[in-house]
């Protein structure tokens, strides 16, 4: 019985070690400016082991994305750093608004001889936002402040009149936090069910900017007739 308990504890330790290992991706999002043909993101291996790095891009609707990573597959040795080039293939994208994709970077552990070691591949997925040439290179606070709120069909609705994706870090209504506020797409609306429904009230929200930093709070009020 003691052997069984020891084996179980060992497996938990190995699982935790594997889950916290892996490469470090040099960013929480990629903003791809339309004037460029390619951009880059770094990957660093702080471990003492070797990892195989596999990278690809997905469209939200699972269709083929107009981006490729180079190299798509490579070996990253211990304590080494490499740069992934992200190349735009030129397929047409909307010119009046941003387009959202998902960049995937998967760390695959190298084979070991010890069959008692549990190995886990770790996938990092970050937003890839393509920003057309016609738009400003960086979202301004003035653009972020243009979000509007209203009570609509028993839910709180946010409207985004801008051509930019607005990524929420936090959202509070009358002091109550909304779990997982996500983002609102360009020229789109999004609705939230409130934990304590109220037809009017005060809203406070923070966004995540192009550099992955959290903005200062924005505040607004809403009502059934807010615009």
From TrEMBL:
<keyword id="KW-0143">Chaperone</keyword>
<dbReference type="InterPro" id="IPR050643">
    <property type="entry name" value="Periplasmic_pilus_chap"/>
</dbReference>
<dbReference type="InterPro" id="IPR036316">
    <property type="entry name" value="Pili_assmbl_chap_C_dom_sf"/>
</dbReference>
<dbReference type="InterPro" id="IPR013783">
    <property type="entry name" value="Ig-like_fold"/>
</dbReference>
<feature type="domain" description="Pili assembly chaperone C-terminal">
    <location>
        <begin position="158"/>
        <end position="215"/>
    </location>
</feature>
<dbReference type="GO" id="GO:0030288">
    <property type="term" value="C:outer membrane-bounded periplasmic space"/>
</dbReference>
<keyword id="KW-0732">Signal</keyword>
<keyword id="KW-1029">Fimbrium biogenesis</keyword>
<dbReference type="Pfam" id="PF02753">
    <property type="entry name" value="PapD_C"/>
</dbReference>
<protein>
    <recommendedName>
        <fullName>Long polar fimbrial chaperone LpfB</fullName>
    </recommendedName>
</protein>
<comment type="similarity">
    <text>Belongs to the periplasmic pilus chaperone family.</text>
</comment>
<dbReference type="GO" id="GO:0071555">
    <property type="term" value="P:cell wall organization"/>
</dbReference>
<feature type="domain" description="Pili assembly chaperone N-terminal">
    <location>
        <begin position="22"/>
        <end position="135"/>
    </location>
</feature>
<dbReference type="InterPro" id="IPR016147">
    <property type="entry name" value="Pili_assmbl_chaperone_N"/>
</dbReference>
<dbReference type="Pfam" id="PF00345">
    <property type="entry name" value="PapD_N"/>
</dbReference>
<keyword id="KW-0393">Immunoglobulin domain</keyword>
<dbReference type="InterPro" id="IPR008962">
    <property type="entry name" value="PapD-like_sf"/>
</dbReference>
<dbReference type="InterPro" id="IPR001829">
    <property type="entry name" value="Pili_assmbl_chaperone_bac"/>
</dbReference>
<dbReference type="InterPro" id="IPR018046">
    <property type="entry name" value="Pili_assmbl_chaperone_CS"/>
</dbReference>
<dbReference type="InterPro" id="IPR016148">
    <property type="entry name" value="Pili_assmbl_chaperone_C"/>
</dbReference>
<keyword id="KW-0574">Periplasm</keyword>
């Amino acid at each position: 019985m003691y052997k069984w308990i020891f084996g179980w504890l060992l497996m938990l330790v190995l699982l935790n070690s594997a889950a916290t290992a892996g490469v470090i991706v040099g960013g929480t999002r990629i903003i791809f400016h339309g004037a460029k043909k390619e951009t880059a993101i770094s990957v660093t291996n702080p471990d003492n082991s070797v990892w195989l790095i596999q990278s690809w891009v997905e469209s939200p609707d699972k269709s083929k994305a107009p981006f490729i990573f180079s190299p798509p597959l490579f070996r990253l040795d211990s304590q080494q750093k490499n740069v992934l080039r992200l190349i735009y293939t030129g397929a047409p994208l909307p010119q009046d608004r941003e387009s959202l994709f998902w960049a995937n970077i998967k760390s695959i552990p190298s084979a070991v001889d010890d069959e008692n070691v549990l190995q886990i591949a770790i996938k990092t997925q970050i937003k890839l936002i393509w920003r057309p040439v016609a738009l400003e290179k960086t979202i301004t606070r003035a653009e972020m402040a243009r979000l509007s709120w209203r009570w609509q069909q028993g839910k709180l609705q946010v409207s985004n009149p801008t051509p930019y994706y607005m990524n929420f870090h936090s959202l509070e209504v009358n002091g109550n936090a909304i779990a997982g506020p996500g983002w609102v797409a360009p020229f789109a609306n999004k609705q939230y069910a409130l934990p304590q429904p109220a037809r009017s009230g005060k809203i406070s929200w923070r966004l995540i900017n192009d550099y992955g930093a959290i903005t200062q709070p924005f505040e607004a009020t809403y009502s059934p007739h807010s615009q």
